[in-house]
Design brief:
The chain has 12 helices and 14 strands. The protein is of the alpha/beta class. The chain has 2 domains: 122 residues, no CATH class; 244 residues, Purple Acid Phosphatase, chain A, domain 2. Strands 3-14-4-5-6-7 form a 6-stranded mixed sheet.
Length: 373
């Protein structure tokens, strides 16, 4: 995980020049601030390779939270410093007055620290419930009003631990869903390290059960172990498969494809045609695909609704634009893709690589199906 070490080092050097030097701190103050920033680099050392992918060294919750906060600060402070320095360049061009380096650095530090506090809190708090009604073409009247809860990007780890996952499960069960969908990124860590934290998933309750597909993080952490573990937790994984839900004479098809990372690692590749094999003609289809960037190809397959995650909603305003570009324009919320509805969830929890959200709250999504005219 070299990027987790190299990137913070580069940003720290930049922040020393842009923040610390203009503040004219005494030597002890500079050393203390440098030590504070250096804590963030330790995040890279928490990840190490194993025969099954990556693992994360276990630390006490408080230590993990501190490292996470400092790492978040490094990222946020870099964005704030960049804004400050762009203003400085414009000031040099259009003003003859000396630039107030001290006050600008002090203001930038205050904004970065406050934004990091807010963003870290938002990243770790219990997700809100987002209720969305969605009209589905050819939906039988027996399924009109069906309640489907979606959890995605749970990323169970040392921060999203057993207690946090249990709270998500409790809030989801309180919605009394008929079906629960989990389109990938259940966990960060091996079965040995993280099975306890993900264990509350087995307490999810829904009439039609819990269905899931793999996300990219399942391949980074003990893929084969998790594929065996998910059924024990009550999750039926759809690996280029579909299930037909029936109520009276009506049918609703739920299909799922594995994440493209499987293909990159020589494992099962996503195959939408195989996932839709033997689907009855004109039956309404809901597709789980962890990433939204295949939506235009999937829309050609007469799918009514695709549900995805992966983007985390962009997390913070500047990164939002980069995330949007990396995912072919899909980052959060509803999209109409050549007649197919696409919903991209911002995620139900956080990713410990950057556990920060600003104006991008996490959510448990509750879809209420309606028959389209």
């Amino acid at each position: 995980m070299g990027a987790f070490m190299l990137l913070p080092i580069v940003l720290i050097l930049y922040e020393i020049a842009s923040l610390i030097l203009p503040l004219k701190m005494p030597l002890w103050g500079r050393l203390l601030f440098w030590l504070f920033l250096l804590i963030g680099i330790s995040k890279g050392f928490l990840y190490h390779r194993t025969p099954d992918g990556f693992e994360i060294y276990e630390l006490p919750y408080a230590a993990t939270l501190l490292i996470t906060f400092v790492f978040n600060f490094i990222i946020i402070a870099a964005l704030i410093c960049l804004t400050k320095d762009i203003i400085f360049l414009a000031w040099k061009i259009f003003s003859r007055r000396p630039f107030p380096h001290f006050y600008a650095a002090l203001f930038a530090f205050s904004v970065a620290f406050s934004a990091t506090l807010f963003g870290t809190y938002e990243g770790l708090r219990l997700p809100d419930v987002n209720i969305q009604e969605v009209a589905i073409k050819n939906l039988g009247r027996e399924f009109d009003g069906m309640r489907i809860a979606m959890l995605v990007d749970i990323h169970a780890d040392e921060l999203t631990n057993y207690k946090a996952v249990q709270k998500i499960v409790d809030r989801t069960n309180a919605l009394k869903p008929d079906l629960i969908l989990i389109p990938g990124d259940f966990v960060d860590g091996t079965v040995k390290a993280r099975s306890k934290d993900l264990e509350p998933i087995k307490n999810l309750k829904a009439k039609f059960g819990v269905l899931g597909v793999t996300g990219n993080h399942e391949y980074y952490f003990d893929f084969h172990g998790w594929i065996k573990e998910f059924p024990k937790l009550g999750v039926k994984m759809l690996m280029n498969e579909n299930v037909a839900l029936t109520s009276g004479d009506a049918k609703l098809i739920i299909a799922g494809v594995p994440d493209i990372t499987g293909k990159m690692m020589g494992l099962t590749a996503p195959d939408i045609d195989l996932a839709l094999k033997d689907v009855p003609k004109d039956a309404p289809i809901i597709l789980m695909d962890h990433r939204p960037d295949s939506a235009r190809e999937n829309a050609k397959k007469n799918i009514a609704l695709q549900v995805s995650g992966h983007t985390h909603g962009g997390q913070v305003p500047v990164i939002y634009s980069l995330t949007k570009r990396a995912n072919k324009g899909f980052v959060r919320g509803w999209y109409d893709v050549e007649g197919m509805k696409l919903y991209v969830s911002p995620g139900t929890s956080q990713w410990n690589g950057f556990a920060c959200r600003i104006f991008d709250p996490s959510e448990i999504t509750l879809f209420i199906l309606r028959s389209a005219e």
